[in-house]
């Protein structure tokens, strides 16, 4: 008999409930989903639960690129955190800024729904994932939290804004390893 691997939760930080619910529907069969609606509640949820993957929107509550500040905060306390940006921004400069801040992957929100679980799998496994439609991102971006020489191509209780839901049941873009996940 095969033993099922326990996968840690995925934290979604997005201020639009419809996006959070859509992510739950897409990922819900295989993932435990945590959700937060602001930088502060996302950071609190990260500290409280230490999820395997954090999915971050860059523009939270109309604040331009607030998500990059969240990425930096998370990487300051957990340099090996796996962070997937899920954003409407496709500008290569913004993508580069997010990756330089510590994001492991970047997916544009108008992507095909099948791409989200694949991006989560790749990021969780330690590989860089950048939406194939994004052009102009430098081939090699220094990975702020990585070990020297590695480059990349391509709390407290939850606040009232955060929520947790259990799942009903429990193509690679790039094969360049990003950061090793420490064993606990």
Structural features, described:
By secondary structure, the chain is α/β, with parallel strands linked by helices. It has a single domain, classed as 3-Layer(aba) Sandwich (Rossmann fold). Helix content is 29%, strand content 17%. The strands form two sheets. The protein has a seven-stranded mixed sheet with strand order 6-5-4-3-1-2-9, sandwiched between helices. It has a two-stranded antiparallel sheet with strand order 7-8. Helix 5 links the parallel strand 5 (105-108) and strand 6. It is globular and about 35 Å long. Residues 1-5 and 143-178 have low confidence and may be disordered.
What labels describe this entry?
two-stranded antiparallel sheet, 184 residues, alpha/beta, seven-stranded mixed β-sheet
Percent of residues in helices comes to: 25-40%
Strand order of the largest sheet: 6-5-4-3-1-2-9
Largest sheet: 7 strands, mixed
Domains, number = 1
Radius of gyration: 15 Å
Element-level helix/strand string: EHEHEHEHEHEEEE
- Spans of at least 5 consecutive residues whose pLDDT stays below 50 are 1-5, 143-178
The span between the termini is 25 Å
* CATH architecture tag: 3-Layer(aba) Sandwich
Structural class: alpha/beta
Count of helical regions: 5
What is the averaged pLDDT score? 76
